[in-house]
Amino acid sequence: MAFTKKQKSEMLSQYSEWLKQSNAVFMMEYNYMTVKDVEALRAQVREAGGAAHVVKNTLFNKAFKEVNIEYSETLVKTTMVGFASDDAPAVAKVFAEAVKENSEKYTLKGGILDGVEISIDQIKALSDLPPLPIMRATLLGVLSAPASKLVRTLAEPARQVAAVVKARSEQGEAEVPVAA
């Protein structure tokens, strides 16, 4: 289907806007995909906090130049692009798992992370990172561990004194004769 100049201009501006709003962009070639396959992959990317779109290669290459992103490869064949605005590892994981599960349908092409081109190996490494909430919880645990240990250390003498007082009071109750 041929597009008019106006349609191409609108598509180019939309691609440029998606690139500006995204922290990470992952590109993948797809073959023999049904509409159901495309929608399932898009749903997975949406669940990961991103968006996936099939793009026109020539226009997407122009969009890179328009937003001043250096991408060394010229996109050819079919291209589906995943845009991640918050959690780049989650979107990378969706693309990497899709390629791993259906290597005859999908092939990673490359990506952009914070305006810098990344390789396929780097995308796979990024996909191995834990999700953002787990990384935050781990960091919080690492940061709060010394403070928790300090509080326990400071509270230990008071706890020991309380245990001695309790033991003495229980011992004193056992020795007191009961009046009849």
Considering the chains and any ligands shown, give keywords for the structure.
180 residues; alpha+beta; 6 helices; 59% helix; single chain
Please explain how this structure is put together:
The protein is an alpha+beta fold and about 180 residues long. It folds into 2 domains: about 5-130, Ribosomal protein L10, N-terminal RNA-binding domain (Alpha-Beta Plaits), CATH 3.30.70.1730; about 130-180. It is about 60% helix and about 15% strand. The chain is built from 6 helices and 5 strands. The protein has helices at about 5-20, 35-45, 55-65, 90-100, 120-125, 130-175; strands spanning about 25-30, 50-55, 80-85, 105-115, 115-120. A 5-stranded antiparallel beta sheet has the order 2-3-1-4-5, with helices on both faces. Strand 4 and strand 5 (about 115-120) form a beta hairpin. Helix 4 crosses helix 5 (about 120-125). It is elongated. The mean pLDDT is about 80.
Q: Can you lay out the helices and strands and say which pair or pack?
A:
Layout: H1 5-21, E1 24-30, H2 35-47, E2 50-55, H3 57-66, E3 79-84, H4 88-101, E4 106-113, E5 116-118, H5 120-127, H6 132-175
Antiparallel strand pairs: 1-3, 1-4, 2-3, 4-5
Helix pairs in contact: 1-3, 4-5
